[in-house]
Amino acid sequence: MQSDVELVRGIIEALNRGDVDGMLMRMHADFEWRPLESSPVARVYRGHEHVRGYVEDWLGTFDGLRIDLEDPEDVAGRVVAPVHAHGRGRASGLALDTRFCQLWTVRSGVAVRMDEYVTRDEALDALRSR
Amino acid sequence: MDESDWLAERFEEHRTRLRAVAYRMLGSVSDADDAVQEAWLRLSRTDASRVENLGGWLTTVVARVSLNMLRSRDVRREQPLVHMPEPIVDRADGTDPEHEALLADSVGLALLVVLETLSPAERLAFVLHDMFGMPFDEIAPIVDRSPEAARQLASRGRRRVRAEHTDPDPDIEAQREVVNAFLAAARDGDFEGLLAVLDPDVVLRADLGPAAESREVRGAEAVASQAQLYSRLGLLMKPALINGAAGLVSTKDGEPFSVGGFTVRDGRIVAMDILADPERLRRLDLTILED
């Protein structure tokens, strides 16, 4: 059986191919994507339709968008995945180069939720407080 | 309302202002939307918990994106004599609320045309300081200059804008009367009548697209002669608001032929700015003018 970490890898690899359907097939219909809460524009994307819109916005706005997973690991039943995102603004040409940490919740072989944090330590703190 | 909705609402409060900044920087609604979209996505990956002035900070991000778009546009595009920005077209009897928000504080076509002639850094410094009140010490890091150098950039921009008299009379009805008198005189071939409504230093700028040479004509007699020529083309003229000021949309054989904005000061036309690029006209939404 596929591990939770492998499932997350599959989602990120699909994203890097621009294969949104490939991402969504690994996500529950009510999947919640929670971008960085401390961002001034934070909001939650719930369900395939909203997640698709959000991901397609990213793919349409940045050329060569890629997320590199940096040693994802299973911690207390969640996947803690530090990531490095990079690309270039299609209209502006400005580089995107950012590191943050994703905390994935997987149930019965599908992803049900993903929260983003500034650092791995913040993600682990959030995990401990749940 | 949950927390995420509340946060999204906070951004929406700023979105109108951000679109307005980007439109003044880029002269195009669609490019402004692209800039705000890119800024939004970048911000969704940014920890802003320690940001004290969210509005100023958001403006800075959009300005940075817009500045780079301007710079890359300058590299890609061979600069024509006149590049007409994307006009915002409304019915003569009222402005769409969304357009009204975008045009708040009046940004006429003539002003945008002058802004197109500034360097990207001059444009940014002038727009952020003179139109949005951003202090020079906040503008300086965006253009990678000292605050004093940023002040000089804005000052150069201001001089260019003032030299072109881009502020119209505020009374839209008075503007409309002058434009109607101009049209009537052009239609009747009344050269003296045309001269009576044209400022002696009037400028006519026309962007005809890449297939034809854009043109800039100065002086009342030269502009009146052009107007007489155009009156023989058999165009159907429809009054409209162009960037919130009196203007016209013309069609020929049912197809858009031109969009023209007029700047009227002290009862005379000081500038006529015309977009007649067939490809760009096709991309404008002119259905709003249909009866």
Description:
The complex is a heterodimer of chains A (130) and B (291). Chain A contains 4 helices and 7 strands. Helices cover 34% and strands 42% of the residues of chain A. Chain A is of the alpha+beta class and 130 residues long. In chain A, strands 1, 2, 3, 4, 5, 6 and 7 form a 7-stranded mixed beta sheet that branches. The two termini of chain A are 27 Å apart. Chain B folds into 2 domains: 3-77 and 117-163, Butyryl-CoA Dehydrogenase, subunit A, domain 3; 172-289, Nuclear Transport Factor 2, Chain: A (Roll), CATH 3.10.450. In chain B, 53% of the residues lie in helices and 18% in strands. Chain B contains 12 helices and 7 strands. In chain B, strands 1-4-5-6-7-2-3 form a 7-stranded mixed beta sheet, with helices on both faces. The model of chain B has no long low-confidence stretch (mean pLDDT 86). The A-B interface holds A 34-36, 38-44, 57-58, 61-62, 85, 89-94, 96, 98, 100, 116, 118 and B 2, 4-5, 7-8, 10-11, 31, 34-35, 37-38, 40-49, 51, 54, 57-58, 64-66, 68-69, 72.
Short note summarizing the structure:
With 130 residues, chain A is of the alpha+beta class. Chain A has helices at residues 4-17, 20-24, 47-61, 120-129, and strands at 27-34, 45-46, 62-69, 73-75, 78-89, 95-107, 110-117. In chain A, strands 1, 2, 3, 4, 5, 6 and 7 form a seven-stranded mixed beta sheet that branches.
